[in-house]
């Protein structure tokens, strides 16, 4: 890792300043024109709940969408999930699941919608880069009571009845791109109906950030990310977590690999190496071969990955490959408050 003196860092920040200012202008004017009604948000014929964030990845959005979808379904609602399907090989409206049958594969769906479709029962999952078109299709085909629009806080072309924004509890001093991870300034959190500080059990959220957010949004909660007691194999069968009593090799392609390591430790798993890949990473043959070699040389008991990455690593044939599922936990009163908003 190269070392920079303070003068070099200052010069680097000065070079980024024009880019940062231009990005801020784009965000400011875009939101301004939506706020005054010059740009119009189009309404779908059902309730829309957006689950999004201010930052780039790492907030635990997919587990939260899973939690919210199942919670609303348990309340008797007909629920559908709409995503753009990041990095999928298809375009246009594409059905991942009709709620009963898986209709697509990983490549044509994108990793997060494919994972959701495999986990959600009785809940349709559709991807479309044009969210309004995708929402119209869902309303026509499935007649839902509510559509959960995944990663959509910045997608203002579609009117949403409820905006839920997630903030990773380990984020400190959030700054706008390209200096930090924020897609838009923190003050824009005032558009949110509820803000949830996620993974609060892994890293306590910054109290000054909570105070700042609470002044802009009345409904501010904390959620926890809890590892399952059952590991999942690529074929869908399970294995008790307690059966792993030796070293493991960890593999992840997520926005917050530090939290994945904390989850592994909380689950009592001793990882001897963690292959950290970029969020939504695709694994090449070389990547898989390196993972295989490290696993064998470490004499590890298992390869542990995330549910999102499991299908991408299926070619590690003959090796004990498992995903460690995680679930979202919210205090009962906070959960009720959140659901009452919907």
Low-confidence stretches: 1-10
Second CATH tier, the architecture of the largest domain: 3-Layer(aba) Sandwich
Distance between the termini: 47 Å
Tally of contiguous helical segments: 10
Shape: globular
What is the strand content?
Answer: 15-25%
- Number of domains in the coordinates? 2
Helix fraction bin: 25-40%
The averaged pLDDT comes out at 91
What's the SSE pattern? HEHEEHHEHEEEHEEEEHEHEHEEH
Q: How many beta-strand elements?
A: 15
Spell out the CATH superfamily of the largest domain. P-loop containing nucleotide triphosphate hydrolases
Largest sheet: 9 strands, mixed
CATH topology of the largest domain: Rossmann fold
Query: For the CA atoms, what is the radius of gyration?
Result: 21 Å
Assigned CATH class of the largest domain: Alpha Beta
In which order are the strands of the major sheet placed?
3-4-2-5-1-6-7-8-15
SSE-based structural type: alpha/beta
Structure description:
The chain is an alpha/beta fold. It folds into 2 domains: 47-224 and 328-341, 3-Layer(aba) Sandwich (Rossmann fold); 229-324, Rossmann fold. Helices cover 34% and strands 23% of the residues. The chain contains 10 helices and 15 strands. The protein has a 9-stranded mixed β-sheet, with helices on both faces. α7 links the parallel β11 and β12. The longest helix is centred in the first third of the chain and has 30 residues, at 6-35. The radius of gyration is 21 Å and the shape is globular. Mean pLDDT is 91; it is low at 1-10.
